[in-house]
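Data availability (excerpt). The following record was deposited with the supplementary files.
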Amino acid sequence: MAGEKENASPRLPAGRHGLPREFIVQNQRERIVTALVDTVAEHGYNATTVAKITKAAGVSRRTFYEHFADKEACFLAAYEMVTDHIAASMRAAAESFDEWPQQVRAALATMLRFLAGEPELARLCMIEPVAAGGEIAARHRTSMQSLVEILKAGRPEHGGEHPLPEATEEALVGGIVSLIVREISAGRGSELESLLPDLAELTLAPYIGAEEASRLARQ
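Predicted structure:
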């Protein structure tokens, strides 16, 4: 984790350190989560093992299992921490604008900026959940709802004769995720912000029309 690595908690000295247990527990948990992110970034979720995580974190297996039931629980803790931060940042960015199209563009820009600046976290959030499957993949689908809700708020903007299909927002978010995953997989994660005009146009067009969407997307 680019930002996390620099601020990672130091390893505690062996022996009687005299620190409060609450500090020790938090320190250990943060180190384990950071080690999980680093290990998954290097090996992928499926090849990551508890042994690799504990080695990277500098803790024992016993300590690991005091904090997490298994590798999946540890991954979910890291995943939720990151996605909650992204969702909150997107909502805050959207709320700084009065007009819905600008809210969408601001939310997309915020998400892309974060993912571009944190390549290991981008992989954790966008690539590994699909590979992991099971509960992790299900949680990933649920986490995308924050963007779905932002888009649904734009339905009153739609001026067409017929209402938008019920699955419009899910389809749009699926397309956004697919394009982001493509760029990360191709080694272009640092360039994700260049997707903003296209993603904004793609997302806004069903609601406000292609011409207006293109104009706003390229402001």
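Summary of structural features: Residues 112 and 194 are 9 Å apart (CA to CA).
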